[in-house]
Design goal:
Blueprint: H1 6-20, H2 22-40, H3 46-66, H4 71-88, H5 98-119, H6 126-142, H7 144-167, H8 180-194
Helix pairs in contact: 1-3, 2-3, 2-8, 3-4, 3-8, 4-6, 5-6, 6-7, 6-8, 7-8
Protein name: Prepilin type IV endopeptidase peptidase domain-containing protein
InterPro entries: Prepilin_IV_endopep_pep (IPR000045), Prepilin_peptidase/N-MTase (IPR050882)
Domain Prepilin type IV endopeptidase peptidase: 57-162
């Protein structure tokens, strides 16, 4: 009997956490989308934030389960986010001035995490670098204050959770923690404050 293609086995690997907990994933996604709809409101950029909420929820569940941020979820979010925010740009109060800020936020957050990955390769993964660029796009769209809050919240939430796990002896100094959920939570907090 022939073995399944390698692509299928890789795909099945990262989809398993989503298929194993469909109700939990769906309820979490619905809550995130409801929060974003409430905070962003009926604006031209709402579809972009809803995309981020749905993709981010899936990425969070996958990263917690298998400590990976799969490209099939992360990389399309660059194109989708840029397209949806670009389409919304002419309808903003500044007539499109947010979009260059979004691109600058993408580049800056991607670079910040890429430098960390190069200097401390065991501290974060390449998936975190890829996700950081996507999140930087949205944070940049909301402005410098949102970008700074998102970055700071990411590091604070990650540090507090790591310290809590160490204190509870549920993790040791060499433990590998998924960083994607901290990136996503920090970004969500910044969106809720600045949208």
């Amino acid at each position: 009997m022939e073995a399944p293609p390698v692509v299928w086995s890789l795909r099945a690997d990262w989809t398993e956490p989503l298929r194993a907990r469909p109700v939990r994933v769906a309820l979490t996604c619905a809550a995130v989308l409801a929060l974003l709809t409430w905070r962003v409101g009926v604006r031209a950029d709402l579809p972009a934030f809803l995309w981020l909420g749905a993709a981010g929820t899936a990425l969070g569940f996958v990263d917690v389960a298998i400590k990976r941020l799969p490209d099939p979820l992360t990389l399309p979010s660059y194109g989708a986010g840029a397209a949806l925010l670009g389409a919304a740009a002419p309808f903003t109060e500044d007539g499109g001035g947010r979009f260059p800020h979004a691109l600058a936020g993408l580049a800056a957050l991607w670079a910040l995490f890429a430098v960390q990955w190069l200097l401390l390769p065991g501290a974060i993964g390449l998936g975190d670098v890829k996700l950081a660029g996507v999140l930087g796009l949205y944070l940049g769209w909301l402005g410098l204050d949102a970008w700074l809050l998102g970055v700071a919240a990411t590091f604070v939430i990650g540090g507090v959770c790591a310290a809590g796990l160490l204190a509870a002896r549920r993790a040791g100094r060499g433990s590998e923690l998924p960083y994607g959920p901290f990136l996503l939570l920090g970004t969500l907090l910044a969106v809720l404050v600045h949208a």
